[in-house]
Amino acid sequence: MKVLLTYKNLPGKGLLERLERQFDVCVYEQDGYMPREELLKSLGDVDGLISMLSERVDAKLLDHAPKLKVVSNYAVGYNNIDVAAATDRGIMVTNTPGVVTDATADLAWAILMGIARDVCRVDRFVRTGEWKEWRPEMFVAADITGTTLGIIGLGRIGQAMAKRAAGFDMPVLYTDVFRADPELERRLGAQFLPLDDLLRKADFVTIHVPLNADTHHLIDAHALSLMKPSAYLVNTARGAIVDEPALVEALRNEKIAGAALDVYELEPKLADGLAELDNVILIPHLGANSRRTRDRMASMTADNMIAALTGEQPPNLVNPEVMAHRRVRDTF
After folding, report:
1. N or C: which end of the chain has fewer CB within 10 A?
2. Per residue of the chain (332 residues), what is the pLDDT tens digit?
3. DSSP-derived secondary structure letter, 173
4. Is 198 in contact with 225 (CB distance < 8 Å)?
5. Strands of the 190-192 sheet, one edge to the other
6. Residue 307 · residue 314 · CB < 8 Å
7. Residue 227 contacts residue 196 (beta carbons within 8 Å)
8. Radius of gyration, alpha carbons of the chain
9. What is the Cα–Cα distance from 194 to 206, expressed in whole angstroms?
10. What string of DSSP letters covers 253-315?
């Protein structure tokens, strides 16, 4: 069986070696991502595809892959894949859930603290030689300890953020589609509120929901207008959850104090004016980029692919209903 790996510099130990022991593995050998037109032309005899989050696996692509049995996404999210189209064609879709929780929460906490204490701005101040003497009024920054953290989405990463907040004596507010179990709320010290109320009360708002039709531009001009002028927004989830032009306007006019972003709606393109602002930290989608996390993601991606192509149900199957679909199809 043939497996196509569309990105040669995939981090994580052992993935390629494990796959090559069982399959014919074809790796795109150029730097960067495989161009879409070349990808479409390469799928005719491919049984397994390892896809990146930046690759659009839609119906058109799947129609170019008549032998495809599984798409193993090297990511937790899979909004780059048309899961319904894959299921209709009897194609399994897998991901790497749970593995990025701590790495993403660590990064979200790092940039939360970074924007609150102006870390990037004062770093530039020192590097450019502007620092001439210590003065008590320089860069008086926001407090973190004892302030209120608002979490949008109390899934794995949201819960990890709540646990970290406890170390800073921060009251935790959260909002989600469904309210959490009372015991979980008690353990996390988290209080449920509707989104608008959370935005009004939180000093830091951190986003941890998936991107879908309901969350697209969830944080828009209206939502930003509800936040305190002293509040900060953190997004390490998906860029399109935030209306970036509205955020630029809010930051430029100091309607909120600042923002810290790891993700962008049209990444790597930034919304006009975003890069010129001093009250925002911008980093290039690094939430999962820790050594341990990348190793675990590689291992899970290989596990999913090997199981799918050896007749087993993959451990992280996004569309389990496809198994019944495949059994029906295989009887004909």
Report:
1. C
2. 999 999 988 888 888 999 999 999 999 999 888 999 999 999 999 999 999 988 999 999 999 999 999 999 999 889 899 999 999 999 999 999 989 999 999 999 999 999 999 999 999 999 999 999 999 988 989 999 999 999 999 999 999 999 999 999 999 999 999 999 999 999 999 999 999 999 999 999 999 999 999 999 999 999 999 999 999 999 999 999 999 999 999 999 999 999 999 999 999 999 999 999 999 999 999 998 899 999 999 999 999 999 999 999 999 999 999 998 665 455 33
3. E
4. no
5. 190-192, 172-175, 149-152, 204-207, 232-235, 258-261, 280-282
6. yes
7. no
8. 22
9. 15
10. TTSSSEEEES--TBTTBPPTTGGG-SSEEE--S-TT-SHHHHHHHHHHHHHHHHHHHTTSPPT
Tokens of 26: 């074809």
Distance from C-alpha of 36 to C-alpha of 268, rounded to nearest angstrom: 17
d(C-alpha 233, C-alpha 304), whole Å: 35
| Token reading at 54 | 């930046």
Amino acid in the structure at residue 192: F
Which among 221, 208, 207, 203 is positioned nearest to 257, based on CA atoms?
Answer: 203
Q: What is the DSSP string of 8-24?
A: TT--SSSHHHHHHTTSE
Task: Find out whether 318 and 96 touch, Cβ atoms under 8 Å.
Answer: no
**Residues taking part in catalysis:** 238, 267, 285
**Residue 72: its H or E element:** strand 70-73
Collapsing DSSP to helix, strand or coil, 219 comes out as: strand
Q: How far apart are CA 197 and CA 54, in angstroms?
A: 34
Domains and CATH numbers, the chain: 2-97+291-330 (3.40.50.720), 101-282 (3.40.50.720)
Tokens standing for residue 213? 């039709």
DSSP classification of residue 133:
S
Instruction: Output the CA angle 318-319-325, nearest 5 degrees.
Output: 155
